[in-house]
Amino acid sequence: MKRLSRYRRHRAAGPFLLVVALLAIGTTFNVASATVAQSPNSFARTSAIEEGRQIFLKGCSSCHGLNAEGGAIAPSLIGVGAASVDFQVGTGRMPMADMSTQAMRKAPVYNAEETAALAAYVASLAPGPAIPTDAVLNYERDGSTAEGGELFRNNCAMCHNFAGQGGALTQGKYAPTLMGVEPKYIYEALITGPQSMPVFSDKTITPAEKLSLIKWIKSAENEPNLGGATMGRIGPVTEGLLAWVLGIGLLIGIAVWLTTKAR
Amino acid sequence: MQDPGPAPHVMRNADIDPKAEKRAEQQVAILFGLSGVSSLLLIYSYVFIASDVFVFIPVMGSQNVQQLGLGLGMSFSLLFLGLGAIHWAKKLMPETEVINHRHEFRSSDEDRDELVKTVKHAAAEVKLGRRSLIKRSLGFSLGLFALPPVLLLRDLGPLPKKQLETTNWKAGTRLVTDPGNRPILASDLEVGAVVQTLPEMPDETERLLSDIAKDPVLLIRIRAEEFQLSPEKLAMTHDGIIAFSKICSHMGCAVALYEQTTKHLLCPCHQSTFDVTRGAKVIFGPAARPLPQLDITVDEEGYLIARAPFNESVGPSYWERNSQ
């Protein structure tokens, strides 16, 4: 103890204790809150819907209401369909970790089975868009990259950026990047219109056209970098920054060198 | 005060120390050498590296080796050439101050007299005064030669006249999807849906780029009770479906960032924000006018049609536009 107390006036003692305290609080909170996410394996379940209802009551009802009727801070889930649940829960957007402006993509809290159960429960409340099957999602066979590109530029590029990298909306909201998103989730986002995104229903952008869109996005993901570094593919912002900071910095350096007298 | 004159010349190391001179010479040679090696890199990349080879480089990601070699070779060969030249000039080239006084601009009297004499003599020699046919035909051709450039100024016009005020929307024109050219049933749109549409063209009429530049209309469906519109603007909607020109009233960009939650339409170019529930009223940004609203209804088959053309010019302001 005496050896320890020697360091109590050390310069680093304050920051060190702060870090230890923060870690302790964080770990405790994590352990304590992790219990919420535990699967309700102990419940006897008769069907996926019943299991989904149980998960819903534990994990979702505090915001979305006991009967999914919605509340002051969360929308009603009646009629949103299985596709919406699969998108929101499968990509980890729901349940939200905090009440920030926008639910962001993170590691999913529920596993595939629990997500399917939740989706089955919400779909049982009222009819809504269903989860697309793998047979529907054969974009490699049924999609056309050229058509997808045209659709993307008309409908998606304004928010998600011309290369699908995502972009800013108003007041802290943003359109997320589309790179590395599973085809199923792209399809579900199109038919359900999550958060700020509008709905692109099957009548106006047909399922075949949706597959073309997915095919284009996948081809954009694998676009070779023939022009050098992409710098995020977000257009003139990074390019301008680099030109101004590096380019003009270099020119100023050379100008200074040019005018100093040689020794 | 007396002019102090130029400061005393300070010798450089290379001027007084032969060792330093040798060193500077070598440095310049190394820079020029590096430039040459870079040029060789460019030639090697072009000739010997296949165009489909990629390599992963930290920060930059996967890069095409050939393109990288061409770019680096070209930039380094130029950079080192420049650096070498500057280094040479600064270290080794003579740098004693030299004063070169300005001479008088006026030529000497003999030169001036000589010129006048030469011109007069040449004019008499070619007998310009007596060859009136050549003189007149030359004048004729030079005069006509000046005309075409004046005539070509015609290409600054003609004025666009009605083109800026009219679109292909007429009473009864169906709204069709773009791309796809499919007519749209009012029931095809769910609440929260948007569709980019164009006017249906008469059979075998080709859609020109200039049409696509001004015709696009954005269809948005919200819950009808959310509209806060004047009665005449409300009458232009159909069952919660409202149609706006997609061309921004500020600079003509395609306005299509639609936030379903806030019912705001944003222009990606300058962040003009339009409130859909209030008839695309501008609530932020540089746009001066709301987006023109298209009067829509459905035909007997249930397809969405325009009830009337736009009642104002779409797109940005121009000189003759009535900006009311």
Automatic annotation (TrEMBL), chain A:
This is Cytochrome bc1 complex cytochrome c subunit. GO terms for molecular function: heme binding; iron ion binding; quinol-cytochrome-c reductase activity. It comes from freshwater metagenome. It holds the Pfam family Cytochrom_C. Its EC number is 7.1.1.8. One of its GO terms (cellular component) is plasma membrane. The lineage of its organism: unclassified sequences, metagenomes, ecological metagenomes. The keyword 4Fe-4S does not apply. It is an enzyme of class 7 (translocase). It is a multi-pass membrane protein. It is found in: Cell membrane. Residues 47-126, 143-221 form the Cytochrome c domain. Keywords: Cell membrane, Heme, Iron, Membrane, Metal-binding, Repeat, Translocase, Transmembrane, Transmembrane helix, Transport. The chain crosses the membrane at residues 241-260. Its main location: membrane. It catalyses: a quinol + 2 Fe(III)-[cytochrome c](out) = a quinone + 2 Fe(II)-[cytochrome c](out) + 2 H(+)(out).
TrEMBL record, chain B:
InterPro entries: QcrA_N, Rieske_2Fe-2S, Rieske_2Fe-2S_sf, Rieske_Fe-S_prot, Rieske_Fe-S_prot_C. PROSITE patterns: RIESKE (PS51296). It is found in: Cell membrane. Keywords: 2Fe-2S, Cell membrane, Disulfide bond, Electron transport, Iron, Iron-sulfur, Membrane, Metal-binding, Oxidoreductase, Respiratory chain, Transmembrane, Transmembrane helix, Transport. The chain crosses the membrane at residues 28-49, 69-89. It is a multi-pass membrane protein. Its cofactor is [2Fe-2S] cluster. The keyword rRNA-binding does not apply. GO terms for cellular component: plasma membrane. Residues 214-305 form the Rieske domain. GO terms for molecular function: 2 iron, 2 sulfur cluster binding; metal ion binding; oxidoreductase activity. This is Rieske iron-sulfur protein. It comes from freshwater metagenome. The lineage of its organism: unclassified sequences, metagenomes, ecological metagenomes.
